[in-house]
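Field reference: sequence -> structure
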Amino acid sequence: MPQILGSSISYRVAVGPQQGRKAFMIRTLRPSDRPNPGQERVAKANGFSLHAGISCEGHHKNKRERLARYIARPAVAVPRLSVSSTGKVVYTLKTPYRDGTTQVAFEPMDFIARLAALVPKPRINLTRYHGVLAPNHRWRGLVTPAKRGKGARRTENTEIRTPAERYSAMTWAQRLKRVFKIDVEVCGRCGGSGKVIACIEDQDIIDRILTHLRNKEPGTPPLLPTPPSRAPPGTLPLFAGSEPIATTPNKQGCH
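Structure field:
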C-alpha cells in the first residue's frame, strides 16, 4: 500500500510492466502561461495540493451548501470514465490542467490500484482539525459547542470518563439506530415505545431460542399481543427450552 499511495500522488504507474513511469496524459489544449485568476491561495508541492481560495460567510446558505457538496464529492466521477479502443481506462478531467491535459489514461490494473489508494485505512480519522480545534489543544474546550477538550471547565458534579468509557456508554440499540436507522425501541406493529431490558449474547442460548421457534408445531397458536389476565402484571414469560425470557409490555400491550 505505501507504494500504491506514493504512485497515486506522484502520477506514476503503480503496477504492471510500466511501473514507476509517469501516467499517460492526453493533452488537447495549449499550455497556459498566465496564472488563473483567484489562484493566489492555491499551492502544489510533492503531489499534494492545498486550495484555500474559497470562503463563504455564515449567512450565505447556498454558497455554504455548494462548498460542502464540493468537499464531500466522490473521488471519481463515473460519467467521465470510458474505455478506449486499446483497452485503457480513460478519465476526462472536469477542469483542464494548466499544461493542457484534459484526459488521463490508465491500464486496467493500474486503475484498480488507484482506486485501492482511495480506500481509507481502518480506524483512522478522515477529518483532521488544527489550531484551537485540534484534539489536544488547551483551548479546544472553550471554543467547541460540546465543550469537550483539555480547556473545558468541569464542575464538581461532572463525571470524568475515559474515551473508552464514553465509547462503551453507547448501547448496541443506539448504535443500530445510528448506523442502520433500525430503531428496536419502537414496536413494528403498533408504533408504540418499548424498552430493552436484556441483551442475550450467549451463543448457546441464542441457538436454543431460535431452534425452539423453528421447531414449534404448526398448530401452536401465536403469541398474544397482550399478556393473559392471570399472568403476573407487567411480565409475560416466554420459554425457550428451560430458559425463561421476561419482556415488558408497552402501553399498547406489545412486547
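Note: Helices lie at 2-9, 61-71, 108-118, 140-143, 163-168, 172-180, 203-214.
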